[in-house]
Amino acid sequence: MYRFSKKKKAKKKIRENYGKLKDEDFSFELIRRYYDRNNAEKCSQDVSEKVCGDLNFEDLFKYVDRTVSPVGQQYMYNRMRKVPEGANYFSDFEYLVSEFQKQEPYRTKIHYELNKLKNADSYYLCDLFQSDQVKPPKWLGLAYVLSLTNILSLILIIFTPQYVLLFLFLTIVNTVLHYSNKKNVFTYLYSFPQLSVLSDVSYRMITKKYIQHTNKIPYRSVTRLRKIQKKLWVFNVSKILQGDPTGLIYAIFELLKIVFLVEPIALFRSLKRIEIHKTDLQEVFEFMGSIEMALSVSSLRYGLPYYCIPEFISPKKEMRFKDIYVPIITSCVSNTLDISKKSILITGSNMSGKTTFMRIVGMNSLMAQTLNTCFAREYTAPWLHIYSAILRNDDLMNSKSFYMEEVLSIKEMIDKSMAGKPHLFLLDEIFKGTNTIERISGGKAVLSWLNRGLNIVFISTHDIELPDLLKEEYNLYHFSEEVQEHTISFDYKIKEGILKSRNAIKILEINGYPKSLVEEARQLSYKFDSRRFSV
Q1: pLDDT tens profile 354-408
Q2: Over the range 152-191, which residues count as b (16 or more CB within 10 Å of their CB) and which as e?
Q3: Is the sign of the CA dihedral 42, 48, 49, 51 positive or negative?
Q4: Least confident window among 15-29, 455-469, 486-500
Q5: Taking the alpha carbons of 388, 392, 395, 399 in that order, is the dihedral positive or negative?
Q6: pTM for the complete prediction?
Q7: Is 193 left (phi over 0), alpha (psi -120 to 50) or beta?
Q8: Rounded to whole angstroms, how far apart are CA atoms 140 and 183?
């Protein structure tokens, strides 16, 4: 009766939390553990640390992640960094998302099962198939002999009590070997018990009606995993008995493991079996992760004010979106744009929203290609490879300046741009770290180069010369502000054309800079403008 009541309460909580943000801490060191060593997976693009930083990837992930267990969380993180090779990936995925959205009792049952993998120790499951196993000690063969001999000595004690001396001697030897092997046991202390849980949950999962309709059910791998599970009983029992309030039963079990060297023998037999079936273990891990990711996306979509499933078109220089936004920005203002044959150059005042808008476009392009979900009413684009140069910081550890860091980022874009595939290039204030003449001339040359072929470029700039130099290759847009006597307000809406006004000096005035200083700055700006226009 108690178990039934507890289960009922758990399911009620699951239903109440559907569509809501997770209320927990995010340890990205553990979350990305699977991704960091997943080097063999084929993908369209492995999103770089640079792009992740520019697009505030961790904040985005915190919002979209509604997974249940570390397995699902690690899988989803990996999928959002390793972009799949085309939209065909989404057929089974969308089927599951749709069923989770429609079938509440079914969804809750799946969620309840996945809750059993919620233990933080599940973060270490990926180690079992991604890391090299611990090498067995040279004395492992002797352990079998010592274990058998101790069993025989116990039997002989019944008939000849003097064999107790042999038993005590062997027990002392076994104690030394048992504890010398403890460091190897600790390596798998977290993952082994969770492997058993993974085996149980995956076995129940492949029997579920709607999951059976998908094309990638690893029946054979799940069966093999259950055979491995049976060999882990020693570690599962040890984990359970650690919670013994008196410690007596745990101490007795530990003594038995010492006398018969059960632990080292069981450990390396299990590792041998796991080594043989690493591929099966990874397949089950990814199968469970894919189910959780579909469940997470169904919850995400339910909690959004609106969203769309992206429409992917054949490779061409086109991109359209309607009312695009990101929910991680409070009261985010949406924007609409239709791009065809030309890239986009954006001018605008300080704080008007140019950089944020480009981030929103980048985040949604990434979401479209990894989770088949966009924060927009409509999104249409080809499959894009995303590269960016937005955040620029001096790299003191590597002695890189703003300018050199940007040069290297843009050089990567230039190299990628010649691949003949559609790319999305996001650049903010190109070559900001150098002088005006070389910034404008170098910027124009780079932007013309990147705009070739099927590439779509978004560039924001304060340089009033660039729009004139690039107006044949780029469509011109701007963000603007409304200046009042003591305030400046922004509507964050993108508009056609270039911005004619500027606000930097006005912001100095509003924030209490001395009047003479502000007036001098204003007079100098007029003088520089007249020189530019006279040239």
Answers
A1: 999 999 999 999 999 999 999 999 999 999 999 999 865 545 445 456 778 888 8
A2: ebbeeeeeeeebeebbeebbebbeebbeebeebbebbebb
A3: negative
A4: 486-500
A5: positive
A6: 0.90
A7: alpha
A8: 15
For 364-452, where are the E strands, in sequence order?
A: 378-381, 385-389, 423-428
Residue 52: CB atoms within 10 A of its CB come to 17
Give the separation between CA 235 and CA 228, rounded to whole angstroms. 12
The backbone region for 222, taken as left when phi is positive above 0, alpha when psi lies in -120 to 50, beta otherwise, is: alpha
Beta-bridge mates of residue 388 = 426
**Helix ranges restricted to H, 82-213:** 90-102, 104-114, 127-130, 140-159, 163-180, 182-187, 191-205
514 and 446 housed in the same domain: no
Whether residue 241 has pLDDT greater than 90: no
What is the spatial order of strands in the sheet that 495-496 belongs to? Answer: 385-389, 423-428, 456-461, 343-348, 474-479, 495-496
Number of domains, the chain:
4
**Same domain? 460 vs 403:** yes
Q: How many residues does the chain have?
A: 535
**pLDDT tens digits, 49-75:** 999 999 999 999 999 999 999 999 999
For residues 275 and 362, membership in a common domain is answered with no
pLDDT digits (tens, 9 = 90+) for 317-364: 999 999 999 999 999 999 999 999 999 999 988 788 899 999 999 999
Token duo for residue 263: 């632990």
Quick one: which of 455, 452, 457 has its CA closest to 430?
A: 457
pLDDT of amino acid 523:
86
CA dist., res. 76 & res. 372, Å (int): 13
Q: Which two tokens stand for residue 483?
A: 């200046």
Range(s) of the domain holding residue 515: 507-535
For the sheet with 335-340, list strands across it.
Answer: 311-312, 378-381, 318-324, 335-340
DSSP letter assigned to residue 379 = E
CA 358 to CA 345: how far, in whole Å?
A: 11
The C-alpha atoms of residue 152 and residue 447 are separated, in whole angstroms, by 82
CATH code of residue 395: 3.40.50.300
Question: Can you give the C-alpha Rg of the chain in angstroms?
Answer: 31
Token representation of residue 115 = 């809750």
Domain boundary residue, one of 303, 331, 365? 303
